[in-house]
Amino acid sequence: MFSIIKAQDQHIQLLTAIGKTSFIASHGHSASADDIQQYVNAKYTQEVFQTELNDAKNIYHLISYKEQTAGYSKIILNEKFAHIQLENVTKLERLYLLKEFYNLKLGYELLKYNIELAKQNKQIGIWLFVWKENHKAFNFYKKMGFEIIGDYNFKISETHSNPNHQMLLRF
Q1: Residue 11's CB: how many other CB atoms inside 10 A?
Q2: Which residues pair with 61 in a beta bridge?
Q3: Looking at residue 102, what is its pLDDT?
Q4: What's the pTM?
Q5: What does each C-alpha distance from 67 to 58, 64, 71, 97 come to in angstroms?
Q6: Which end of the chain is less crowded, N or C, counting CB atoms within 10 A of the terminal residue's CB?
Q7: Would you tell me how many other CB atoms lie within 10 Å of the CB of residue 50?
């Protein structure tokens, strides 16, 4: 009923659209409309996705449900950060689903897929940032076994940052 494929150049428009829509849906009320729009216009462009897909460290996957693309993920293997004194850890940078695909366990399937991919690449854990006000996402990661290991201010604009939890799941 669902399928997961590695994103490639021909998916750039799809990644851009899903990225913008998902970010606005989950973070759109976190800052002024101008700040959100400027952030989205800077971070979710076809040029940004082209650059990221050209960099082998960025691993994107698309998940589809009944032949409709429902969302995507982005991981980076061997990505260390403050509060993590471990080697061989993966950063889950994005796990986005379009709203119409919520409650179908697609986020679970996509996360599980990325965890298995990390394990196959000899990683010992996976970490992420989640906005403290995104209770749905925070509760999802907590239920999946992630633990809070620190805090991070996610910069939306020059004048606004969102407080995030840094979370880690050890394998």
Answers
A1: 19
A2: 6, 73
A3: 95
A4: 0.94
A5: 24, 6, 12, 15
A6: N
A7: 13
